[in-house]
Structure formats: structure tokens, C-alpha cells
Amino acid sequence: MERLRITDDGFTTLYSSEFGQFYHSVRGAMAETQLVYIDLGLLAKAQEIKEINVLEIGFGTGLNALVSVLEAQKHDLKLHYTTLEPFPISNDDVQLLNYQDELHTQILKNLHEAKWEEEVEINSNFYLTKIKTTLQNFSSNKLFDVVYYDAFAPSSQPELWTEETFAKVASVMQKGGFLTTYCSKTVVRKAMQAAGFIVEKHQGMWGKREVVRAVKG
Ligand SMILES: C[S@@+](CC[C@H](N)C(=O)[O-])C[C@H]1O[C@@H](n2cnc3c(N)ncnc32)[C@H](O)[C@@H]1O
């Protein structure tokens, strides 16, 4: 499989041969980010609060983070954005991505070059903390308002979609916090419910697959 793919909405994605998965939906990388993480997660929470702690599972290409920077500026939010990534992509891979051209920004470079394990001011709306670790090894004193649950699919990483794992995520979330994800498999929704989430299914991209917002009860 090729490393780079142009998805149906013109935004690029990468293929991971280690995990046998693309980093985004090949039907549209930007469409997925916008609906699942921005609209259902970030902007829904921004109806309630303007200073938001976001946790992302899987920094990957940085697309979710980049679009969050732009949305924070647009809506005058203050984001403290923590993202976990045990396997950062290389600088050569970053060069392959077309997000800066498509979104008319130079910020993707800053996100990838930001130091790990410390909070870095990207601009006055966006403070980034990249942590080079797995979700399994992550711990936090901070509670998160929004979680972008963007792990590779259950067929590839089943250990990240269990009741135990969702209970761990719930333990670092505010009551009423939103966890959003592209995966709406029954087994995943049941694991979320068992971990104490109230699970909502929402219309997915292209009127087809459903996506999930889970609210911490
Ligand atoms: C679907 S991709 C994420 C795409 C990313 N959000 C983006 O905007 O490009 C999944 C990411 O999770 C990372 N990952 C793999 N195992 C992980 C683990 N145990 N904990 C946290 N992240 C993990 C992968 O390296 C990959 O970057």
C-alpha cells in the first residue's frame, strides 16, 4: 500500500503498514475531522465554556490539532490541547501532507516541531502539550472537557476499545465531558456504556456510517 493517499475531499492521509490502517477515512480526511471532532466535540462544548481542555488519542498527522487551532481562533476559544502519540510520524511524512496549502496556514509545521512533554503556546488561543506515550501509560491530574478518540480501528487495536480503556479515559474527564469518535460498532458502544458513558449515535459523513458522541455521566 502507498504511504500517501489523497482522500475524496482532496485532503491527504497516510497509511500505516504497522497497523494496516489509514490515519483518516479515505472518503474524506477533513470531512471526518470536521464532523466527528470539531462539530460534535469541540464546538458542542464551546456552547457551554470558552476555555476547554482537549485530550486527543493519537496526534498522527496533526490534522485534528491543526483544524482545532483554526476553530479556536475563529470562535475566540482558549484551548489547552493535550495529545498522545507513541509513534510520531517523520519530518519527511509531514512534508507529504497538503493541509497547510488546503487550509492556507503555516501552523502544521509549528505543531510538529513543538517540544514534547511541555505546554507550548502556539498562539493566544491554543496551548499544545504533546506527550510521547500510549493511552495505556498516560496519567493526568487534569480533567478534560473534550476527548478526540482517534485511535486506529478495533480490528487493528482492540485493546484501545474495551470497557477498561474507556473507564480509564472517563477517569480523566469532567462530568458532562464529550468523547467523540468515528467508530460506532455495537461492541464499542457497549464498552462505553459499561464504563459509565451515555452514548449518542449521530449521522455520519456522507449520510452513511454513524459516528459517536459519548457523554461522561
Ligand atoms: C487514526 S490515527 C490518528 C490520526 C490523527 N488524529 C490525525 O489527525 O492525523 C491513530 C494514531 O494513534 C497512535 N497510536 C497507536 N497506538 C496508540 C496508543 N496505544 N495510544 C495512543 N495513541 C496510539 C498512532 O500512532 C496514530 O498516530
Walk me through this protein's architecture.
With 217 residues, the chain is of the alpha/beta class. The protein has one domain: Vaccinia Virus protein VP39 (Rossmann fold), CATH 3.40.50.150. The protein is 30% helix and 29% strand. It contains seven helices and eleven strands. Strands 6-7-5-4-8-9-11-10 form an eight-stranded mixed sheet, with helices on both faces. Strand 6 and strand 7 (126-131) form a beta hairpin. The radius of gyration is 16 Å and the shape is globular. The model has no long low-confidence stretch (mean pLDDT 97). Bound molecules: S-adenosylmethionine. The site of S-adenosylmethionine (SAM) has 19 residues, from helix 2. S-adenosylmethionine binds at residues 23, 57-58, 60-61, 63-64, 84-87, 134-136, 150-152, 157, 160.
Q: Quickly give the CATH architecture.
A: 3-Layer(aba) Sandwich
CATH superfamily: Vaccinia Virus protein VP39
| Amount of helix | 25-40%
Radius of gyration: 16 Å
Pfam families: Methyltransf_30
Protein name: tRNA U34 5-methylaminomethyl-2-thiouridine-forming methyltransferase MnmC
GO molecular function: oxidoreductase activity, acting on the CH-NH group of donors; tRNA (5-methylaminomethyl-2-thiouridylate)(34)-methyltransferase activity
Keywords: Methyltransferase, Transferase
List keywords for this structure.
217 residues, alpha/beta, Rossmann fold, eight-stranded mixed sheet, three-stranded antiparallel sheet, 7 helices, 11 strands, 30% helix, globular, binds S-adenosylmethionine, tRNA U34 5-methylaminomethyl-2-thiouridine-forming methyltransferase MnmC, oxidoreductase activity, acting on the CH-NH group of donors, tRNA_MNMC2
